């Protein structure tokens, strides 16, 4: 099984895996942050958009939506979920467009898919270049020094006469600039169980280093990872929402 099977062979299960994520409240929070810090313009790009769950909400808010992802299988589903949006196959670390976006997002920790610090820097530079002067780049991230290798998120969904169990967890060895996202999918149909596991290599970084990468390009505001209220980051939490206003 390739290490990105979830986004290729298993892409049809992706929306089930994310069934417990409140995409509406995430999107509402980003929309509010854009109204507070950005220019309120409506040209929107979602990086690593997957099957387009954020784009679905931004379409309802009247945005002109675009999505970019490295997996054609995920984009095929996104195009069905969001027929009003435009999708492009591409790498967020190297993509190029004119400076025409008001808002760029990258959620579900997908910025870490840039893989290493050099490519993360590439993603930051590409997003900066693609924004209008007062546009914002908004994403969530995890600080490598706060990863608890014992923590695991698990949920179960009944679908199509089968029971699906999805597990995800971070792993960081404690050294270097690589962490892993471990994922597993279990499908049980009439007592027969199939299991798939993925390990996704991702960039590991602490928040001080991430701010230092962002600051040459953006004014950086950091918030607690809370989609019910907007609270300034307490400088201790290991998960946060970054709002970066183009300089
Ligand atoms: C965890 S999913 C997140 C999808 C969506 N943002 C969400 O919140 O549900 C990660 C996505 O990142 C995409 N991806 C991974 N590496 C990428 C890269 N270098 N450039 C663009 N997309 C990438 C994968 O194909 C996958 O669709």
TrEMBL record:
Molecular functions per Gene Ontology: methyltransferase activity
Keywords: Methyltransferase, Transferase
Pfam families for the chain: Methyltransf_25
Coiled coil: none
Residue ranges constituting the Methyltransferase domain according to the UniProt record: 45-135
A GO BP entry: methylation
Alphabetized Gene3D superfamilies for the sequence: CAC2371-like domains, Vaccinia Virus protein VP39
Keyword match Transmembrane helix: no
Xref: PANTHER family: TRANS-ACONITATE 2-METHYLTRANSFERASE, TRANS-ACONITATE 2-METHYLTRANSFERASE-RELATED
Protein's name according to its UniProt entry: Class I SAM-dependent methyltransferase
The organism of origin for this protein: Marinomonas colpomeniae
Lineage per the UniProt record: Bacteria, Pseudomonadati, Pseudomonadota, Gammaproteobacteria, Oceanospirillales
